[in-house]
Amino acid sequence: MLRGLFLASVIAAAIGGWAVITVEQLPDYVTAGRPVTLSFTVRQHGVTRLSGLKPSIEARSGDLTTTATASPGRETGQYASTLSLPRAGEWTITIHSGFLDRQVTLLPLSVIAPGAATPPSPSEPERGRRLFVAKGCVTCHVHREVAGSGVVAVGPELTNHPLPMDYLKQFLANPAIAPQSGTVRMPDLGLAPQEIAALAAFLSTERQALR
Ligand code: HEC
User: Fold this and answer.
1) What percent of the chain has pLDDT over 90?
2) Has residue 1 got a pLDDT over 50?
3) Which of 48, 141, 174, 202 to mutate to test the pocket of ligand 1 (most atoms within 8 A of CB)?
4) Cβ-count burial of 14 within 10 angstroms (0-12 exposed, 13-18 middle, 19+ buried)?
């Protein structure tokens, strides 16, 4: 059974049945009971924006589960889902793309009680680690610090992949500057400068320094 599932996903990957899910603006934390909107883009092979999907979001914390559907956003392949997480704590959010069984589970999101003090900001490398999952890097690249990374490892492994900081930032802003290494190109996921800074900090930080 497991073997069949594994083979099925290998075949799906081979015939193009995979997609990259990129969350637009990942919050550091949210407040319990207040609606929060998550926007994301689904790109087949990290490139082709897929419209007409019916994505959904599932959030879990302990015994609680909240689900929400997503509706099409402004741009092709973009979707938005508004949900309200009823209780303070750590919530695990899974985005189901609606394209085959392609999904992504974000690193746990902190939910604070209304009126509670603002939690300390995550460190830059830790924010970068969260973005590594939320931006969809996790689909194409293996990284030791990110469980389940490298779903369809079409890009190089990025654990201990040292690159000069300036180059890394330029590359993430415009991946076309690197020569193509395989059949798939590193896509331009439209990262914001702060996201690039955090991702670069994560990729150039040694394991001990994280969190
Ligand atoms: C669709 C698959 C895909 C996704 C998604 C993806 N990459 Fe890549 N990445 C590649 C490929 C393929 C390469 C190799 C260069 C090439 O062929 O374009 C690469 C190369 C890299 C490199 C090495 C560049 C070098 O010159 O050594 C870094 C660093 C990198 N990616 C970081 C990221 C980060 C951070 C994200 C998420 C924001 C990301 N990638 C998302 C496919 C992907």
Assistant:
1) 82
2) no
3) 141
4) exposed
